[in-house]
Write the C-alpha cells for this entry.
Amino acid sequence: MPDTLTPARPPAMARIGDPAPEECVWGHVARAVAWLDDANGRGPHETAVRVMKIGEEAGEAVAAYIGVTGGNPRKGITATADDFTGELCDVVLAALVALVTVSGGTPQAENRLARHVADRATRLHALRPVA
C-alpha cells in the first residue's frame, strides 16, 4: 500500500455483528487507485474517466435527494436519508480517487487537500457578517 500522511489506527478484533472497523480514508483511496491502475492503467483516458466519475456520482446523489424529499410527484418518496448520505460519500470518494490520480500519489493529494482547506478557512475567517 502506498504511504499515507495520516497513520491508520490498528484494527480492533472484530466480532460478528460489530460495526465495520474504522479505516483511514486515505488508505482506502490508495488501494482503490492501485486497483484501478492495475486494471486500467493510468493514461489520459483513464484520468478523464476518474474525473467524470465524480459527475456520475453527483447525479446519483441528486436523484437520491429527490427520492428522499419526494420531489418527483409521480414516484413519491423512493429513497432514504441513508441512501442519500451514501451517495454523497460516493461523490467524496470519487473526488479523492481523482485527486490522488492527478496529484501523483496519496501523500501529495492529502497535502494538497490540507492546504486547500486551510486556505478556505483563512478566507472564511476574514469574512465579516453584514450588519
